[in-house]
């Protein structure tokens, strides 16, 4: 082969060596595995560097590797290296954003399974049948879950995601009696990851020691038998043996969370039971063996040697070990929670009555089973667990201190383009302003402050598209109005409210928005994830109606900039005030006389829990429904209507308002509804 041919071959080989791996799974896998090896050897920083190199290489081709994103955030949080937290958030989301997601279907599903225990019930439908979903769709769910829960949406960190992985790291080290959860932990790990550290813990072994069993046997024996003092055999020992046979002394651990979601305490019970490995139990009753509910009979022949006329007779003592174990178990939890204290008191009263009357009703297996079933059902259907939150951040009380109310109003503008007006009110409590970073450092901040609202627009994959900030003017009650194009139904919207430091700044200084946003760091934060509403239909062939604005007239003294509606939304209406409703109607057909004709049917009914809007009106008595119909005309294809209702005849409570609009010339109907509350 000629010299130049060899050089050409060498160049080609070099090109293949240095270019092909950057676009291949082998390069990706190699650097991922090398990073894991470095981490196992204690060189966690080397692992991060390897994964950073790999990420930069693959970003050029639009590729990603969720294994690297997960490994990076996992390593950083395990090492508690907060300096890398910004990168960790970025790495995680990058891992689920490439154009090669099909290569990692199993990894993506595994991560979704780690999130599913945290998903609220109302969102669970979207997380079903993960095996059948497109990987890109699952990645969108993953990113949306965490971005919608980002406590500081305006910062590069996703604190809730990082907290989640901190909890995973701690759980893997601490709760490892088995690995039966998606996190590689026992069931305690799942609860810790969902809610953080419990407020109260008690642990031990359920059961009785030998001396306690002996005392129980003697009490039962004395209550069941007469005063004869001589017996054939040893019935006390027989009773003791029957109880000991079921007294397995199972280990248990009880966790209590106080005030999650401002409800009664949440209690979780863990332990080992007969025939099953260590795990979460629904009730204390689960620790009692099923066989312990069966009745045992101890037979004793009574006699007396001093009485020649004595006729031996058989005495049977009923023993139900479950009743004794039940009493003993709740005695161990007497001071843990008032629920267990109440049950202990109830059982104690039952036993005292049975033993004192020498009629062991408390030992009746039917009674014991009845009590067992009642307690089990109470625990199984505990409303705090059934209706409580699926997850809780320990940062909520620190960061999410600004209460935000938002109202989304879909409409069509003068050019018939779909728009959405987002009205935002924030209610900061300025008496307790705390800087999050300073809080972590053990400091607190008290300073002058201002409010900034931000609208963050994200695409269907929760990648940021646009960000708009607004600083409310003095005297407008921290109110902002954002008007957005609303053609794309897949976009997501998040409103963030921040109190930022304005100490030493003249409030009357004419600063630009950009300059004002530079004033100090954000000291308090609040966030609201908006409902993903479909846009209004701009087709002229279809009748369309804006969202209702239900509330009160805009007060004269409250001239909100950029707010063009005559009614301001209000959830609560005073019973002596009138209810005001505003709506806009589009695409009305003009008749031969250049007039549009339409009717509006208004209905108000009290809310009934568990029913849809239509069902409420179908199932409510006519006397309890306020109904009114208007027949109207318009010289335009657009009509803007403000109506007023006298609600003084209604009782306080929650109500639903529904409107049916009918274009009488085209015979098309559109409906809108909303809720409000009447207060005294």
How does this model look, in words?
Helix 2 runs antiparallel to helix 3. The strands form six sheets. Strands 14, 15, 16, 18 and 21 form a five-stranded antiparallel beta sheet that branches. Strands 17-23-22-19-20 form a five-stranded mixed beta sheet, covered by helices on one side. Strands 1-2-3-4 form a four-stranded antiparallel beta sheet, with helices on one face. Strand 7 (403-412) and strand 8 form a beta hairpin. It contains 19 helices and 23 strands. The model is unreliable at 9-25, 226-231, 430-448 and 505-521 (pLDDT under 50). It is α+β, with helices and mostly antiparallel strands. The protein starts with a helix and ends with a strand. The chain is 33% helix and 26% strand.
What is the total tally of β strands? 23
Instruction: Report low-confidence residues grouped into runs of 5 or more.
Output: 9-25, 226-231, 430-448, 505-521
Helical amount: 25-40%
What is the overall number of helices?
Answer: 19
Tell me the strand percentage band: 25-35%
Radius of gyration: 35 Å
Mean pLDDT: 82
Alpha-beta classification: alpha+beta
Biggest sheet, open or closed, and with what strands and sense?
A: 5 strands, antiparallel
Overall 3D shape: globular
Distance from N terminus to C terminus (CA atoms, Å) equals: 99 Å
């Amino acid at each position: 082969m000629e010299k130049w041919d060899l050089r050409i071959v060498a160049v080609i080989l070099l090109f293949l060596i240095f270019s092909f791996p950057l676009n291949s799974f082998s390069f990706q896998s190699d650097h991922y595995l090398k990073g894991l090896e470095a981490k196992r050897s204690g060189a966690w920083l080397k692992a991060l560097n390897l994964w950073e190199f790999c990420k930069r290489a693959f970003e050029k081709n639009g590729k990603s590797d969720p294994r690297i994103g997960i490994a990076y955030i996992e390593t950083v949080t395990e090492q508690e290296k907060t300096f890398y937290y910004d990168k960790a958030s970025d790495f995680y989301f990058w891992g689920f954003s490439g154009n090669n997601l099909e290569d990692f279907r199993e990894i993506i599903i595994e991560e979704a399974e780690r999130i599913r225990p945290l998903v609220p019930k109302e969102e669970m439908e979207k997380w079903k049948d993960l095996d059948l979903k497109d990987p890109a769709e699952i990645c969108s769910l993953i990113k949306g879950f965490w971005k919608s829960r980002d406590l500081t949406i305006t910062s590069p960190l996703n604190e809730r995601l990082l907290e989640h992985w901190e909890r995973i790291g701690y759980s893997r080290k601490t709760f490892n009696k088995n690995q039966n959860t998606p996190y590689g932990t026992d069931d305690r790990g799942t609860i810790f990851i969902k809610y953080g550290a419990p407020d109260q813990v008690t642990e031990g072994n359920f059961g009785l020691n030998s001396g306690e069993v002996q005392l129980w046997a003697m009490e039962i024996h004395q209550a069941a038998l007469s005063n004869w003092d001589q017996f054939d055999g040893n019935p006390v020992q027989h009773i003791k043996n029957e109880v000991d046979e079921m007294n397995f002394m199972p280990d248990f651990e009880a966790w209590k969370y106080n005030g999650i979601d401002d409800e009664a305490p949440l209690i979780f019970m863990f332990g080992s039971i007969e025939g099953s490995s260590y795990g979460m139990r629904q009730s204390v009753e689960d620790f009692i063996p099923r066989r312990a509910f069966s009745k045992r009979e101890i037979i004793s022949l009574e006699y007396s040697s001093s009485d020649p006329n004595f006729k031996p007779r058989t005495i049977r003592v009923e023993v139900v070990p479950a009743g004794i174990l039940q009493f003993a178990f709740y005695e161990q939890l007497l001071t843990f929670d008032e629920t267990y204290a109440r049950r202990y008191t109830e059982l104690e009263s039952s036993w005292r009555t049975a033993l004192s009357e020498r009629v062991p009703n408390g030992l009746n297996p039917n009674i014991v089973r009845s009590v067992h079933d009642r307690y089990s059902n109470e625990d199984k259907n505990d409303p705090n667990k059934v209706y409580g939150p699926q997850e809780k951040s320990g940062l909520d009380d620190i960061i999410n201190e600004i209460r935000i109310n938002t109202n989304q109003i879909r409409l069509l503008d003068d050019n018939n383009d779909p728009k959405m007006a987002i009205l935002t009110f924030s209610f900061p409590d300025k008496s307790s302003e705390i800087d999050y970073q300073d809080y972590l450092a053990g400091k607190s901040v008290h300073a002058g402050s201002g409010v900034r609202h931000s609208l963050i627009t994200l695409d269907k994959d929760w990648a940021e598209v646009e960000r708009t900030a607004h600083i409310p003017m003095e005297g407008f009650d921290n109110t902002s109005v954002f008007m957005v194009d609303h053609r794309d139904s897949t976009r997501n919207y998040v409103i963030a409210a921040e109190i930022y430091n304005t100490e030493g700044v003249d409030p009357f200084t004419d600063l630009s928005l950009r300059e004002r946003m530079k004033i100090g760091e954000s000291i308090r934060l609040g966030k609201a994830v908006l409902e993903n509403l479909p846009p209004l239909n701009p087709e002229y062939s279809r009748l369309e109606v804006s969202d209702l604005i239900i509330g009160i007239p805009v007060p004269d003294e409250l001239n909100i900039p950029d707010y063009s509606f005559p009614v301001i939304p209000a959830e609560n209406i005073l019973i002596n005030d009138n209810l005001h409703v505003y709506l806009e109607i589009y695409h009305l057909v003009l008749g031969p006389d250049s007039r549009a004709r339409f009717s509006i049917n208004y209905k108000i009914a009290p809310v009934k829990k568990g029913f849809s809007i239509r069902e409420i009106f179908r199932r409510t008595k006519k006397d309890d429904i306020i109904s009114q119909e208007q027949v109207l005309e318009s010289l335009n294809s657009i009509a803007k209507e403000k109506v007023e209702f006298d609600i003084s005849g209604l009782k306080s409570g929650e109500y639903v308002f529904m409107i049916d609009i009918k274009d009488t010339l085209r015979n098309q109907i559109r409906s809108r509804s909303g809720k409000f509350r009447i207060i005294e």
